[in-house]
Amino acid sequence: MSNQILSDRYGQKSARKPLPTRFWAILSAVLIAGAVVWGIWVQTAQSAAAPEFKNTGYELTSGDEVSVSFEIVKDPSTTAVCTLQALNTASAPVGWDEVTIGPSQNGERVTAHTAHLFITSPAHTAVVEACWSL
């Protein structure tokens, strides 16, 4: 069948008008502004939620226990959870625990803590592995 026969039977296709350049400019500006706002929101939410920590030391208190000392920087009103890990000379974990640190009673952002871990074999070091807010 030829195009003329199809046109006679079904009619002519209406020509679609292209969208104006102004529409595309406004759409692009809105999308870029939305992406920037979303990026700023993600950054501030992530930095406010993630407490920072610093290992300050460890001590082998006995053959089956080690104490870990650390400082944590967080919003005084939030609760954080930190994972502590004791490692042997081959860097294999020989002890592990989670410590919950509640809101600061004095309103301090930086607080020092010491926690005790039970170990299954001699530990070479003990560290805070990670911290996050609840």
Indicate the topology.
Layout lengths: L2 H8 L10 H29 L2 E11 L2 E9 L6 E8 L5 E9 L8 E9 L6 E9 L1
Antiparallel strand pairs: 1-2, 2-5, 3-4, 3-6
Could you characterize the architecture of this molecule?
With 134 residues, the chain is an alpha+beta fold. The protein is 28% helix and 41% strand. The chain has helices at 3-10, 21-49; strands spanning 52-62, 65-73, 80-87, 93-101, 110-118, 125-133. The strands form two sheets. It has a three-stranded antiparallel beta sheet with strand order 1-2-5, with no helix packed on it. Strand 1 (52-62) and strand 2 form a beta hairpin. The radius of gyration is 30 Å and the shape is elongated.
Quickly count the helices. 2
Distance between the termini: 70 Å
Overall mean confidence score, pLDDT:
88
Low-confidence stretches: none
Rg from C-alpha positions? 30 Å
Report helical residue fraction. Answer: 25-40%
Extended strand count: 6
Strand fraction equals 35-45%
Indicate the structural class: alpha+beta
Short description:
This protein has 134 residues and is α+β, with helices and mostly antiparallel strands.
Features:
alpha+beta; three-stranded antiparallel β-sheet; 28% helix; 2 helices; 134 residues
